[in-house]
Specification:
By secondary structure, this protein is an alpha+beta fold. It contains six helices and seven strands. The protein has one domain. About 35% of the residues lie in helices and about 20% in strands. Strands 3-4-5 form a three-stranded antiparallel beta sheet, with helices on one face. Strands 1-2 form a two-stranded antiparallel ribbon. Strands 6-7 form a two-stranded antiparallel ribbon.
Amino acid sequence: LTVRAEGSTSGYSRDLFPHWITQSGACDTRETVLKRDGSNVVTNSSCAATSGSWYSEYDGATWTAASDVDIDHMVPLAEAWTSGASGWSTAQRQTFANDLSQPQLIAVTDNVNQSKSDRDPAEWMPPRAGYHCMYARMWVDVKHHYNLSVDSAEKAKLQSVLNGC
């Protein structure tokens, strides 16, 4: 990973990362991840999850209402923007925001995801310490795949976590 100072959020907007696009039939990215990450997920004709359960790796909680679950962008959109995505095309940002092949999207407890906000590992780690190694590996995978930079504090935290794995 390339280490460099974090860029500016100037010009950033979530709208520059078209997300929750149609993946298949009536299913958008959010619904696809809910089905992938859940257990016994039942959907209606518009692909909305009507029942199932979701285990949040971040905090160890299990939910039975899809409304209690957020789909986290492992590397938040604003973090991607300040790490290199500001120079991407809209199509590249859309791919990043809807990527089902990298460990970029994960179903987690909604308020835990909201507490994470746009912070990197130097500023936030999942409350469940047993998930820190996996979280750090996933973060590095996504940053590497998309050629996004890390700042020095982020690198130091990732190295510290990974050295303990």
